[in-house]
Amino acid sequence: AVWQAGEQWHCVKTCDPTLSVQQLEAAAVVLACGLFQDEHLNIVTDSIFVARLCLAMSGPGVSTSTAASMLEEALSSRQGTVSVIHVNSHNPVKGFFQIGNDKADAAAKGVWTLQEARQLHESLHIGAKALAKKCGISAADAKHVVATCPHCQK
């Protein structure tokens, strides 16, 4: 989660290899809801999944997925109001919302890369050296991904 207070940007990173990218996006919204419980909150996301799921919380028949449950609990426990704004990722036209989204993308870059490396390794089971080169992660991180793969440890 990334937010601006005055002129300063703040960032809190969450890395949980058991969560999908969508669940991590939802976790960032949950964190924001918890940090600013009593104030109006503008949440800007490039995740159409999270934006639509938050919008669906106001109606019946909401999904019972892990991400939906996390969001429902966070949104219903708030005192302040919430606006969820979807922006297209990597938009060349820079505005207030796009700048914040770019900051969030930059903060998440290393986190997403490691998760993507795990996903790539789980599908192809490539070695640490190739994984480091393909995903742009350190050799130590790549070795850790391979070492924690149950299939490769057989």
UniProtKB/TrEMBL annotation:
InterPro entries tied to this protein: Integrase-like_N, Integrase_Zn-bd_dom_N, RNaseH-like_sf, RNaseH_sf
The keyword Zinc-finger belongs to this UniProt entry's keyword annotation: yes
Keyword vocabulary terms for this entry: Endonuclease, Hydrolase, Metal-binding, Nuclease, Nucleotidyltransferase, RNA-directed DNA polymerase, Transferase, Zinc, Zinc-finger
Coiled-coil parts of chain: none
GO MF, one example: RNA-directed DNA polymerase activity
Recorded superkingdom: Eukaryota
One Pfam family of this chain: Integrase_Zn
Stretches assigned to the Integrase-type domain: 112-153
PANTHER family, alphabetized: ENDOGENOUS RETROVIRUS GROUP K MEMBER POL PROTEIN, RNA-DIRECTED DNA POLYMERASE-RELATED
Protein's UniProt name: POL1 protein
Taxonomic source organism: Chaetops frenatus
